[in-house]
Amino acid sequence: MSPSDPEAATVSRLRAELGAVDSAASQRLRAGLLARAEDELLLDIAYATVDTPVGPYLLAATEAGLVRLCLRSDLFETTLAELSEQISPRIFEAPSRLEAARRQVVEYFEGRRRDFELPLDWRLSHGFGLQVRRALLEVGFGETASYLELAEMSGRPRAARAVGTAMARNPIPLIVPCHRVVRSDGSIGEYGGRPEMKEFLLRHEGALPAGRDRVGC
Hints:
Distance between the termini: 63 Å
Structural class: alpha/beta
Oligomer: single chain
Largest sheet: 4 strands, mixed
Helix content: 40-55%
């Protein structure tokens, strides 16, 4: 071994130790900032992520309840920026505040949960969109409804197109189960640009038509 080898090993070890210290310090600083924000009532939105078989989800909640769920990791930053503009810039990553929501999502994908029991903050839903999304909660696990049927459930039987818009803009997918809304011909339609995720969720719930390997998009 050359004289420089022990020195290189020592430098490498010290860097690793410093990295661990920095990481621990960063975690302590984050925890301290979060506690201070809560103490001083500076935290309006808490967010966290949860891993699922179809990729990570972003969850965000206010004191009133879950306000946003984002299905696409490439849109997490955009979603947080939108929440900052729509509700408040006082946003912190606070997994402990979303423990129940994260646990229930995991239980759903593990097949141990059929219904979510979470308070919801509806402030990002308005007018007919809010009416439709509330009606959608009546479509249970393993069931589907067409856009036309959901329009009828919402009291506007001719508003199937508006129902489609309300589903596309649903701020709390999965929990407010827009994946259970399909076309009248049985095809699943779009799902935030990820129809394969919609198909996965419907298969998970046993809601696909019998005898068919795949519901068309």
